[in-house]
Design a protein that fits this description.
The protein is an alpha+beta fold. The chain is 59% helix and 11% strand. It starts with a helix and ends with a helix. It comes from Jiella avicenniae.
Amino acid sequence: MSLLSAFSSARSSLATVSQQSALVSRNVANAENPAATRKFATQSSLIYGGVSIGSISQSSNQALFTSMTSANASLAAADVTYGALNSIRSVIGDTDSIASPAARLTELEAALSQYAVTPEDTQTARAAVSAASDLANSLNAATSAIQAARTDADRQLADTANKMNGLLEKFEKLNNKIMVGTATGQDITDEVDQRDQIVTELSGYVGLNVQVRAGNDMTLHTDSGITLFETTARQIEFSPKSAYDATVVGGSFKIDGVSVSGASAGMPIKSGSIYGLLTFRDETAVTLQGQFDEIASSLVQAFSEPDAVTSTTSWSGLFSIAADGSSTIVDATASKTGFAGRISVAANVVADPTYLRDGNISGQSIDYNTNDNAGFSERLNALIANLSGQRSFDGSLGAGTSGTIGDYIASTISWLEDKRSAANDNVDYHSTVLSRAQESLSDLTGINLDEEMAHLLDLERSYQASSKLISTIGEMIDSILQIV
């Protein structure tokens, strides 16, 4: 090898080492960034000797990345479900709370029993009515908690729609930049990391199918096949309700004009926080509301009074579902939707608690205590029997088909706790799966600080060797020039 060739080779080596050192320094600077992948240079040999940097590449593993985003979507769905159920449980699911429906029912049973023992005592009469009012209030509170949780789910869905539109807009700009950079041979590895980070964020909202096409072009579809991005970003649409009650049906969440949940959804999504929120808002919460409405309806029926003229018609007694607390005809076949939110103690019995003992709360039913006997307790004992008696419930709601009202309340709380416990288990499971997927992906594509520092030392030695070679060649040339 001639001195000129040796000099050229050493000089190209210095340039290459300098570029590689800069790349390693870049890796070291991003070592704490979990979204950053390891960057490395590919080298190519020069005709006249030496090497040069051919291109900048990065570590990647699409299979592990897909596993990670899938686990992220599953965890997000479980997490929002657990959060929503937990917020409701704090109001209605704690059986140790004195304000829970279960505790209030027990208090009413005890108050009625005490009143039946001393029917002439106005204080025990008022205590029984007060206990009934507390029970009605607990059902009102349950409804408020359920509907507040649905309203909060709507708020989160609206926030999600806005965030997704913003992320998809950024994704489109990055994808275009990556495609141009790929075509022109530029270093686009940082942009690819940023694009992958957006994909990871999006996967928390909805499960994704990701495809990388020719030219580093990426497409995004939901786990049900709806297009999120293909050449251009698709629009995410959602309009939240201002407030919820038991009669309000939630609005559709649309991706690219396609509804992703409910009966009208041709391509329903399967994971992500959107799935969890919609499932809770439109299914779980609606079912739970139905169970409490069933409880309210059963209370109205248990304390109802037969019509004085026709025994086939009954009027609401102690409990009313009318806005003004008036008595209404009890129709067991009518819709019960919203009963738990409307139930209250009848206005007449609030004004005069002895109506509970004597009957005729509605003013249109049988007067049980026709002799106005202060010690009359037959009606109270009958009400106690009704309250503790067996009755039928709507089996489609999942809390049982028969039992006492107390049994049904216990089944409802158990149903809620089972759902909450299952969601908690799902959070734990998917957290573990996600953590392992992230670790595996990081091991293969992430930046290992120890390895980068060792590589930097190797480059330093290479730089010193090339510098020494150039210095030696310079000395040799000087010697030749002195001879000449």
